[in-house]
Amino acid sequence: MPSIIAPGGRIPPLPSVDSQARSMTYAVGFFLEQGLVFASDSRTNAGVDHVSVARKMTVFEKTGKRFVTLLSSGNLAITQAVIRQLQENLDTGGKEDIFAAPSMFAIARIVGGALRHVYKVDAEHLRQRGLEFSAAFIVGGQVEGGEARLFMIYSAGNFIEASIQTPYLQIGETKYGKPIIDRTITFESSIEDAVKCGLLSFDSTMRSNISVGPPIDILTYERDSLRAGLQVQLCEDDPYLSQIGEYWGGALRNAFKEMPNPQWLKRP
């Protein structure tokens, strides 16, 4: 059974890993008429005899006032430094305080600013050791009196926003999970369909890239609720993960068999 966390609860931290681990991660956020859906994997390092995991989802919440979720990918030391900086600024009332920001746009700028600060401190030292400054974030949520919004923040601290026309954003190892989302999800899709599609995109990604793997964290947010919805963690042995992989694989094979051959393949 998946680990289901009550609204307002928190998923306990996973074991610590090498802070210099390069996390290719796959994470996706959906921007829907009903609300928002977030999903992220937990793998940071993978090899023949060693797999490391660390959570990539962070929630900042004041129930009834604001709800913000942050998904991260890239060098784990960088993303953890950014998140720690954001946490230390909470409830200070300053311009870098997520709990004091007047809008989601302002919060996206705060996250971008924290990322630029870490770059100024660490980028040259990383370069001298042959390490790339690599980090990206998805930040989404809603502030009381504002609209639910979803942003993707690049390593430079700049960002783009999801829209009705482009109702999802991805970071990390995105290419394997993108096609199913492109063919399935629209702004009018339900939260349930986004969760299902998101998990299918993870299934496709995990089958093609060992750097992405469970546990998978899922979090839903209903528009204007100003509180976290369902929070679920799916581990490697979760029966639903196996079920959707088998179902989708079989459905694709059947569709492929039924697809007509090109006319130009027919011999005279």
CATH architecture: 4-Layer Sandwich
Give the topology string: H per helix, E per strand: EEEEEEEEHHEEEEHHEEH
- Name the shape in a single word: globular
CATH class group: Alpha Beta
What gyration radius follows from the Cα positions, in whole Å?
A: 19 Å
Helix proportion = 25-40%
CATH topology: Glutamine Phosphoribosylpyrophosphate, subunit 1, domain 1
Strand order of the largest sheet: 1-14-13-4-3-12
Looking at CATH, the homologous superfamily is: Aminohydrolase, N-terminal nucleophile (Ntn) domain
Number of strands: 14
Number of domains: 1
**How would you name the oligomeric state of the polypeptide chains in this document?**
single chain
Number of helices: 5
Q: Main β-sheet, in a few words?
A: 6 strands, antiparallel
Overview in brief:
The chain has 5 helices and 14 strands. It is α+β, with helices and mostly antiparallel strands and 268 residues long.
Offer a few descriptive terms:
single chain, 268 residues, alpha+beta, Glutamine Phosphoribosylpyrophosphate, subunit 1, domain 1, six-stranded antiparallel beta sheet, 5 helices, globular
Give a structural overview.
It is a single chain. With 268 residues, this protein is an alpha+beta fold. The chain has one domain: Glutamine Phosphoribosylpyrophosphate, subunit 1, domain 1 (4-Layer Sandwich). The chain has helices spanning 76-88, 104-128, 178-184, 191-208, 239-258; strands spanning 3-5, 22-23, 26-31, 35-40, 43-46, 51-53, 57-62, 66-75, 135-143, 149-153, 159-161, 168-172, 216-222, 231-234. Strands 1-14-13-4-3-12 form a 6-stranded antiparallel sheet, with helices on one face. Strands 2, 7, 8, 9, 10 and 11 form a 6-stranded antiparallel sheet that branches. Helix 3 (178-184) packs antiparallel against helix 4 (191-208). The longest helix is centred in the middle third of the chain and has 25 residues, at 104-128. The termini are far apart. Residues 11-22 and 46-50 have low confidence and may be disordered.
